[in-house]
């Protein structure tokens, strides 16, 4: 819709819109670059702001023709809001009847959409699950509609067929470019699951469903305190009150993802196992559907298919050179009709 609106503009209007976009992009880039150098937050890498600033400056300097409007979706109700000016600092959603501001999370530097009147003056970042203050969004951590659109587009969230659970901590694993201790989000997409390091070392691990061999959720929560025993009616009441006050449960829900080439072990400290299983329902559904399809698929026994399968097993190191050559020779004889 935004593209059609831009295309309907005359040549002079398009040039004016492009010049305006170029100027604002360059200015925002300079400020983002300075913010990157000034940043001293230990969990907010300086390079993220610098990279964001350089990209924005590059867009402004090149002054290429651009579309000055974007169609975005409200993060709360996912209603499409068309023709939003690319440099708008906020938006009003008629479906939610609420005003939202665009900002940058001070912890992970990702773009966020924050209610202008958030309870307590802050909102949890959807990516790293750390608080984003509305006061900061109105100041140094402000962003634009273009930043928000680019964020959800880069993450593949423009559609509606996905599920996101953030706030995981990576405990360990093997054969993935993610470091233990990283705060991660788990995104269920159409073809696979994406594990993204929002804070800490690492990038993004994309795991196709066909390579997943196991999904497990375990509740390792611990309860401390309590244990008071009362004598008599009054004593029982007092003991009950003391137990309620002193008993604390530390959540520790584990998620293990096992694949044909490695595994990831994650922990979540904010949800119980039952709730996590519900929020990851789409992931389990698609994984189980892939497993059923794989078991139901007919086994192709033609020589060409078998040779390709043997080649794959050999490349994976599951067959030695001698085993591979012997099996391949047998399939070649089948193919040529030799006994």
Proportion of residues in helical segments:
25-40%
Beta-strand fraction estimate:
25-35%
Number of domains: 3
What's the Cα radius of gyration? 27 Å
Q: What would you call the structural class?
A: alpha+beta
Order of helices and strands: HHHEEEEEEEHHEEEEEEHEEEHHHH
Main sheet specs = 7 strands, antiparallel
Mean pLDDT: 76
Terminus-to-terminus distance = 66 Å
* Number of beta strands: 16
Q: Could you name the ranges where pLDDT drops below 50 across 5 or more consecutive residues? A: 1-6, 35-46, 59-65
Which geometry do the CA atoms define? elongated
Count of alpha and pi helical runs: 10
Provide the spatial order of strands within the biggest beta sheet: 11-10-9-8-16-15-12
Description of the structure:
There is one protein chain. This protein is an alpha+beta fold and 339 residues long. The chain folds into 3 domains: 2-154, no CATH class; 163-295, Roll (PH-domain like), CATH 2.30.29; 303-336, no CATH class. Helices cover 39% and strands 27% of the residues. It is built from 10 helices and 16 strands. Helix 2 runs antiparallel to helix 3 (46-62) and helix 9 (303-315) runs antiparallel to helix 10. It is elongated, with a radius of gyration of 27 Å.
Q: How are the secondary structure elements laid out?
A:
Layout: H1 2-7, H2 11-38, H3 46-62, E1 69-73, E2 80-85, E3 90-93, E4 98-104, E5 111-115, E6 122-124, E7 131-133, H4 134-137, H5 145-154, E8 163-174, E9 183-188, E10 192-199, E11 204-208, E12 212-219, E13 222-224, H6 232-246, E14 248-250, E15 253-259, E16 263-268, H7 273-279, H8 281-296, H9 303-315, H10 321-336
Antiparallel strand pairs: 1-2, 3-4, 4-5, 6-7, 8-9, 8-16, 9-10, 10-11, 12-15, 13-14, 15-16
């Amino acid at each position: 819709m935004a593209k059609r609106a831009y295309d309907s503009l005359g040549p002079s209007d398009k040039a004016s819109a492009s010049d305006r976009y170029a100027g604002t992009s360059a200015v925002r880039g300079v400020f983002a670059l300075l913010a990157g150098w000034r940043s001293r937050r230990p969990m907010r890498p300086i390079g993220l702001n610098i990279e964001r600033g350089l990209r924005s400056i590059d867009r402004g300097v090149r002054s290429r023709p651009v579309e000055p409007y974007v169609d975005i979706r409200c993060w709360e109700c996912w209603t499409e809001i068309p023709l939003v000016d690319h440099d708008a600092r906020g938006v009003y959603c008629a479906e939610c009847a609420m005003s939202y501001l665009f900002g940058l999370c001070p912890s992970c530097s990702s773009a966020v959409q924050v209610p202008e009147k958030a309870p307590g003056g802050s909102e949890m970042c959807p990516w790293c699950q750390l608080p984003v203050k509305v006061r900061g969004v109105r100041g140094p951590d402000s962003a634009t509609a273009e930043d928000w659109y680019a964020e959800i587009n880069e993450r593949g969230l423009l559609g509606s067929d996905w599920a996101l659970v953030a706030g995981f901590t990576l405990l360990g694993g093997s054969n993935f470019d993610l470091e233990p201790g990283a705060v991660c989000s788990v995104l269920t997409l159409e073809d696979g699951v994406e594990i993204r390091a929002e804070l800490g070392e690492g990038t993004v691990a994309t795991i196709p469903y066909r390579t997943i061999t196991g999904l497990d959720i375990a509740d390792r929560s611990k309860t401390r305190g309590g244990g008071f025993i009362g004598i008599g009616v009054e004593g029982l009441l007092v003991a009950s009150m003391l137990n309620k006050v002193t008993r604390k449960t530390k959540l520790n829900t584990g998620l293990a993802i096992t694949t044909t080439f490695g595994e990831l072990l994650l922990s979540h400290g904010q949800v119980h196992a039952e709730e996590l299983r519900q929020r990851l329902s789409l992931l389990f559904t698609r994984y189980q559907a892939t497993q059923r399809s794989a078991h139901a698929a007919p086994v192709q026994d033609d020589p060409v298919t078998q040779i390709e399968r043997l080649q794959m097993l050999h490349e994976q190191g599951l067959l030695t050179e001698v085993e591979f050559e012997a099996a391949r020779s047998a399939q070649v004889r089948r193919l040529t009709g030799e006994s």
